[in-house]
Write a structure and sequence with these properties.
The protein is mostly helical. The chain has one domain. It has four helices and two strands. It has helices at 7-18, 23-44, 75-80, 116-130; strands spanning 97-101, 111-115. A two-stranded antiparallel ribbon has the order 1-2. It is globular, with a radius of gyration of 17 Å.
Length: 136
Protein backbone atom coordinates (compact mmCIF):
# COMPACT_ATOMS: atom_id res chain seq x y z
CA UNK A 1 0.00 0.00 0.00
CA UNK A 2 1.31 3.45 -0.94
CA UNK A 3 1.92 5.47 2.25
CA UNK A 4 2.88 8.67 0.40
CA UNK A 5 0.64 11.50 1.63
CA UNK A 6 -1.76 12.80 -0.99
CA UNK A 7 -1.17 16.20 -2.53
CA UNK A 8 -4.12 17.55 -0.57
CA UNK A 9 -2.66 16.18 2.67
CA UNK A 10 0.75 17.72 1.93
CA UNK A 11 -0.84 21.11 1.20
CA UNK A 12 -2.94 20.85 4.35
CA UNK A 13 0.14 20.05 6.46
CA UNK A 14 2.02 22.99 4.93
CA UNK A 15 -0.91 25.28 5.76
CA UNK A 16 -1.03 24.01 9.33
CA UNK A 17 2.71 24.53 9.74
CA UNK A 18 2.95 27.86 7.93
CA UNK A 19 0.40 29.56 10.17
CA UNK A 20 3.17 29.72 12.80
CA UNK A 21 5.90 31.04 10.52
CA UNK A 22 7.35 34.44 11.37
CA UNK A 23 6.24 37.19 8.96
CA UNK A 24 9.65 37.27 7.22
CA UNK A 25 9.48 33.55 6.42
CA UNK A 26 5.89 33.85 5.15
CA UNK A 27 6.82 36.80 2.94
CA UNK A 28 9.81 34.93 1.51
CA UNK A 29 7.64 31.87 0.76
CA UNK A 30 4.86 33.96 -0.82
CA UNK A 31 7.31 35.84 -3.01
CA UNK A 32 9.01 32.64 -4.16
CA UNK A 33 5.62 31.23 -5.18
CA UNK A 34 4.53 34.49 -6.82
CA UNK A 35 7.81 34.77 -8.73
CA UNK A 36 7.21 31.36 -10.30
CA UNK A 37 3.61 32.31 -11.11
CA UNK A 38 4.60 35.64 -12.67
CA UNK A 39 7.25 34.05 -14.88
CA UNK A 40 4.83 31.32 -15.95
CA UNK A 41 2.06 33.83 -16.71
CA UNK A 42 4.34 36.10 -18.72
CA UNK A 43 5.66 33.16 -20.75
CA UNK A 44 2.44 31.22 -21.37
CA UNK A 45 -0.61 33.47 -20.90
CA UNK A 46 -1.19 35.92 -23.78
CA UNK A 47 -3.14 38.31 -21.51
CA UNK A 48 -0.05 38.73 -19.30
CA UNK A 49 2.65 38.84 -22.00
CA UNK A 50 3.19 42.59 -21.52
CA UNK A 51 0.81 43.32 -18.62
CA UNK A 52 3.44 42.25 -16.08
CA UNK A 53 6.34 44.19 -17.60
CA UNK A 54 6.27 46.84 -14.84
CA UNK A 55 7.33 44.36 -12.16
CA UNK A 56 10.18 42.71 -14.05
CA UNK A 57 13.69 44.10 -13.88
CA UNK A 58 16.03 43.61 -16.86
CA UNK A 59 17.58 40.70 -14.95
CA UNK A 60 14.20 38.93 -14.82
CA UNK A 61 13.92 39.44 -11.08
CA UNK A 62 10.68 40.83 -9.65
CA UNK A 63 10.64 44.42 -8.39
CA UNK A 64 8.21 44.07 -5.48
CA UNK A 65 8.10 47.85 -5.06
CA UNK A 66 6.21 48.02 -8.37
CA UNK A 67 3.66 45.28 -7.55
CA UNK A 68 0.88 47.90 -7.31
CA UNK A 69 1.47 48.77 -10.99
CA UNK A 70 0.01 45.48 -12.22
CA UNK A 71 -3.48 46.36 -13.49
CA UNK A 72 -6.37 44.67 -11.69
CA UNK A 73 -8.17 42.00 -13.73
CA UNK A 74 -11.79 43.03 -14.15
CA UNK A 75 -14.95 41.02 -14.62
CA UNK A 76 -15.07 42.43 -18.16
CA UNK A 77 -11.55 41.04 -18.77
CA UNK A 78 -12.72 37.60 -17.63
CA UNK A 79 -15.76 37.78 -19.87
CA UNK A 80 -14.28 39.39 -22.99
CA UNK A 81 -10.71 38.06 -23.00
CA UNK A 82 -11.20 34.55 -21.62
CA UNK A 83 -9.12 32.82 -24.30
CA UNK A 84 -6.21 35.22 -23.74
CA UNK A 85 -6.33 34.40 -20.02
CA UNK A 86 -5.77 30.68 -20.55
CA UNK A 87 -2.22 29.37 -20.24
CA UNK A 88 -0.91 27.81 -23.46
CA UNK A 89 0.80 25.13 -21.37
CA UNK A 90 0.64 24.04 -17.74
CA UNK A 91 3.50 23.17 -15.42
CA UNK A 92 3.95 19.42 -14.84
CA UNK A 93 1.53 18.05 -12.26
CA UNK A 94 -1.04 20.86 -12.54
CA UNK A 95 -3.53 19.28 -14.95
CA UNK A 96 -6.08 18.25 -15.95
CA UNK A 97 -8.33 21.29 -16.03
CA UNK A 98 -12.02 21.76 -15.38
CA UNK A 99 -14.35 24.64 -16.23
CA UNK A 100 -16.57 26.31 -13.65
CA UNK A 101 -19.28 28.87 -14.32
CA UNK A 102 -20.70 31.59 -12.10
CA UNK A 103 -24.47 31.93 -11.85
CA UNK A 104 -24.44 35.35 -13.48
CA UNK A 105 -26.49 36.86 -10.65
CA UNK A 106 -24.48 40.10 -10.90
CA UNK A 107 -24.48 40.17 -14.70
CA UNK A 108 -23.31 37.82 -17.41
CA UNK A 109 -22.03 34.44 -16.17
CA UNK A 110 -18.25 33.99 -16.15
CA UNK A 111 -16.47 30.75 -17.04
CA UNK A 112 -13.27 30.01 -15.13
CA UNK A 113 -10.85 27.18 -15.85
CA UNK A 114 -8.96 25.67 -12.92
CA UNK A 115 -6.37 22.91 -12.68
CA UNK A 116 -6.71 19.83 -10.52
CA UNK A 117 -3.95 21.10 -8.22
CA UNK A 118 -6.00 24.26 -7.60
CA UNK A 119 -8.91 22.07 -6.53
CA UNK A 120 -6.70 20.11 -4.16
CA UNK A 121 -5.36 23.34 -2.66
CA UNK A 122 -8.89 24.67 -2.23
CA UNK A 123 -10.01 21.48 -0.47
CA UNK A 124 -6.92 21.57 1.78
CA UNK A 125 -7.63 25.20 2.69
CA UNK A 126 -11.25 24.33 3.42
CA UNK A 127 -10.09 21.48 5.68
CA UNK A 128 -7.63 23.86 7.37
CA UNK A 129 -10.43 26.31 8.14
CA UNK A 130 -12.40 23.51 9.75
CA UNK A 131 -9.39 21.78 11.33
CA UNK A 132 -10.95 18.51 10.26
CA UNK A 133 -7.93 17.15 8.44
CA UNK A 134 -7.46 16.69 4.72
CA UNK A 135 -9.04 13.38 4.01
CA UNK A 136 -8.50 12.15 0.48
Amino acid sequence: MDRTPSLRQRIYEMLMESQYWPPEQMLEFQRSQLTQLLHHAKATVPFYKTRLDAVFKESGKVDWNRWHEIPIVTRADLRERRNELLARELPPGHGPTKNFSTSGSSGVPIVVTATSIAGEAQRAAHARRGHDGASS
